[in-house]
Fold each of these.
Amino acid sequence: MNVGKFYNVESVIHDISVELKFLFLVLFSIEIFFINKFWVYIVILFLILILIKLSRVPFKLFFRNVKIVLPMILLTSGLNIFFISQGNVILKFFFIRVTDYALNLILTMMCRIITLLFFSLLIMFTTSVNKLSRAVIYIFMPLKNFLPVNEIAMILNIALRFIPVLSDEFDLILKAQKSRQIDFDDKNIFSKVKNYVSVLIPVFILSFRRADDLALAMESRCYNPDNNKKKVLKKIKFERVDFYALIFISVVHVLIFFLIISG
Amino acid sequence: MIKFDGVSYIYNHGLACEKIALDNINIEIDENKIIGLIGKSGSGKSTFVQLFNKLLKPTSGKIFIDKKRIGLVFQYAENQIFEITVEEEIGFGIKKYAPEKKIKRILEVLDLVGLDKSYLKKNPFELSGGEKRKVAIAGILILEPEILILDEPTVGLDLKSQKEILENIKNLKQKFNMTVIIVSHDMNVISEFCDKVIFLRDGKIIFYGDTYKVFDLNDFDLELPWTKKLAKKLVKKNFFVPENIILFNDLVKYVVKKIKEKKN
């Protein structure tokens, strides 16, 4: 999985201020839960596809990640179909009753998750971890008297930075266990799960060891998140690309707002 | 037969961040020998060994290996340990064997890596670094590999453990006549234990041949083994040393012989 991996190419989307991108993501994540129409998601997905094209990040990276999550989405959707009985029945097969309401709800939910996933991946691929944590500090700075902003940013930074590291470690241990003839393609689901334990235990141990080492390294370098005197925040410049991005964001949000109201 | 025919491997193929790890590798590797695989970091050594047992599939080219059982011991092999006893850890690969046969095999491989049966019920996580590494290697040896590949088998270990592990590998090779491939940055290890060497640079094979010959290459840009360094210094002082002397004992014998000849 490529989550957390910055895709380093030059593009308009990479150039947009990370604070703006982060703001858009937060607003979008809230708004998306108010959209109930299937076709609106198609329009949003189309807009995201344009943004992906502009970002110069290959589509296959996005699809690879969506493919991993897809079975889980399909499973939850499938379960929902059988448990929602509201609405008109459109399909009846023995005890299974599929209603138009359930179908609409499931399609909307699937679109919601996929749209959010696409958009989050776009932000991940086009923003370096350092910039992302800096954005968190800027955005939450007004709340510093109520929230440990620096700690939150540090935790986010470490969490995001270590996703690719752990993913590589998982991959390496998987290969090492495959070399010991451990069959991860076993058709029996129970032995498959049991075999994956041989990967999960070492990965957990390594993660804890890594966390311990990191904590020691930070302490030995006198890390103190509350020592603000030493922190020099970089002044953000509002570039032309940010201006265009802001116009785009505003138009999209107004559009979404009207679509929600009209719905 | 172990043959690579025009093999290339590219990470993130087709993406902007693609990286050529191996570039048109053509080689037929000698069997039943200890082969050293050397090169700087990022030269493609680890990628090369992962192609042997199909953990990676070449981007282009073909690999012909007529052996079925290929054991690959990764760097920091102790990281793959997950069972709660040494017995279960080593025996995981042969869990379908009958209990008597299984325990017999476990004891055999324990002996091969220089551990005794008192380790069987011990928790592998409580062993020393060298012992853990031996347990991990035993977990591969139990599968009776015809080709054994070790990616930096001694990295991070103390000198005593390093020596023990390498001696065990040498004995294994002699006992089972298997092909052993050792990836290492330590030229002292390579010069002492390997019959032949593959030298990789930027994903290409620069050299494949007898170990002693690699150290005399004009463009050899790795650290020389210290016996070879000493031999080169002697040559500079007009004391001829044959190029095939790369082991300390051989060098001492040769120097003593020459001094005696001079006295007579």
Amino acid sequence: MPIVYILWLRQIKRYLRSKARIIGSLGQPLLFMVAFGFGFGPVFSKAGEGNYIQFLVPGVICMSILFTATFTGLEIIWDRQFGFLKEMLVAPVSRIKIMIGRSLGGATVAVIQGLIVLFLSYIIGFSLPGPMALVLSLGFMFLIAFLFTLFGTAIASSLKDVQGFQLIVNFLIMPIFFLSGAFFPLDGLPKGILSVVKFNPLSYGVDALRGSLVGLNHFSLWHDFYVLGAVIVVFLLLSSYLFSKIEA
Amino acid sequence: MIEVKKLQKRFKNFTAVDDISFSVKEGDIFAFLGPNGAGKTTTIKMLTTTLKPSGGEITLNGYNPLTQKDKARHSFGIVFQDASLDDELTAYENMMIHAVLYRVPKAERKTKIKHLLEFVELWDRKGKLVKTFSGGMKRRLEIAKGLLHHPKILFLDEPTQGLDPQTRNHIWEYIKKMNQEEKMTVFFTTHYIEEAEKMADTVTVIDHGKIIDSGTPEELKIKTGKTNLEEAFIALTGNIIRDEEADGLEQMRRRQRHH
């Protein structure tokens, strides 16, 4: 336990110290909420779908969590570059504990980032649900965050340097984000796109968060929970395996 | 304490370590010398479980680092040739993480960290982020970290590179003391040959991935007919200047170190 805790704490401390990073990473979600929220709002309500800000905010929170979580997972590449990875790898500690500690830290950081976005959305006119619904959405935020930290860890464990990094952002993270229903309702999508969306784990995160925050569901909350849980188990096994294979 | 048989490491286009065998007795101070690119660091990486050998056998404190990784890791401590600190954390936090990773008992952590940070004269900077440290200060912190837990075997990969003679002597006294009081085995590489001459019980010379010779500093001097170890070393390995091939990662780490 102390090992998981100290590596968790390390992530939190690094996050809290990088003020520029915190503020910088809020620009994008804020821009999406303002530009899309207000830009598409009128069309959305004309189509009879209701308030677009209410619809959009859970998606933007998911985006924030997706990016922060994946990047903290990918930080292993930086740990390798700056040498700290060796410090962890020669320690007489099981690889699983190292990986779990890091990932829980990354997930916590991503949840904090999501909460800040939630707070910002409140300022631009998002109406918050009751306390029970907030606790429920916090739980889902954590699942999404943990899932994508593990995802980042798995990728970073199989990469040697930062060269492949941009490739991952463009060909994995962006599609995951845009094809998750974060911006558009899933009802009435063409079949091809819908099957891609259904294959994307983030879709269930978006759906769960939208369900718990504003009561709009495409799947059901239980369905979302099972899918997220199952994918976490798969990624947990995969990233433990890949992380244990790392050579310093 | 360390037993190496027919150890090999082949990379795609060259052989870094070519069929070497040697052993280190318990409580020995063992110097592993060689020119740049001779295979020293690759050997240390294989001994410390971070690189898989292509062939051969290793026994560390009775354990096989390939199959009994955790037990082997419990047996040693290491000071790396390049950085292994988290720059975004303070000196104290780096020490604390190390203490927890190596299961230093909670009651002893604080006093031990204080003792070692005072020893390397970084105690008054304990709360400063490592990225603000100079190269020498980082090196001292690396060494303090390596000495924090008391392993059976201590690996030092060019530990004193870039430090002034005062600091080097100071640090070696401490290592010598740990070696004598706790029978700690010390395995080190260095480019300061006089350091090896002064400190080592046994010297092994490696070049082009092969062991050239081995013995006490006295024996090597007599064998080559030279008056000091540095001349003996040059007699054994020749005068050609070596270039170490560095991949992108290695270069970046080095750049990081010079900041």
